[in-house]
Amino acid sequence: MRNLTRAVISVATAGMLIGGAGYGVASADSGHDSVEGDGVFALGKFTFEGRTTSDDPRSATGYFKADPTAPADALLALRGPITCIVVDGNRAGFLYPVQDDSRPALLKSTAVLISLEDGGPGGTDHIGFVGPAPTATFPNCNPGPTPFDVTSGDVTVHDGS
Q: Which residues fall within 8 angstroms of residue 22, CB to CB, at 6 or more apart?
């Protein structure tokens, strides 16, 4: 049973960023921080959009959804609202709590920190994640490591300051 639990958590972690759709965000001209992305990396596909509505990082709105490719798709369906965004130049971090209708059920009441690095036009973008972990594990949403190259698609980070 312990190995099965580890396998499910490993698959869940790998599937955090795989495939999905997001909500629209305001134009980058809004004066607020924003992130958006749609692409492919070593572990699958991802799509997200989010923005802050004030100078408070916790004023973020948006959505992240992950639907992995087979065979993990039978075990995983991860999604959640973006609740925090911190932008520092071309790097950003955002937090999303795993939504209640996500699979597997053991991931409920957890959150994932997604970190991004925008390589600019023609450059290589990078992405990384920490979690899922209990939401209290994340006192902020500062960007962390971004070990994965985005091999197709785009990540855009807009620093509204």
A: 36, 47, 48, 49, 50, 62, 63, 64, 65
Q: Domain ranges for the chain, please list them.
A: 2-152
| This model's pTM is above 0.70 | yes
Beta-carbon-side half-sphere exposure of residue 90 (alpha carbons within 13 Å):
12
Q: Are 130 and 144 in contact (CB under 8 A)?
A: yes
Sheet holding 110-117, edge to edge: 84-88, 91-97, 110-117, 126-134, 148-149
* Residue 91 C-beta-side C-alpha neighbours within 13 Å: 10
* 116-156 pLDDT, tens digit each: 999 999 999 999 999 889 999 999 999 999 999 999 999 99
Round the CA-based radius of gyration of the chain to a whole number and report it.
Answer: 15
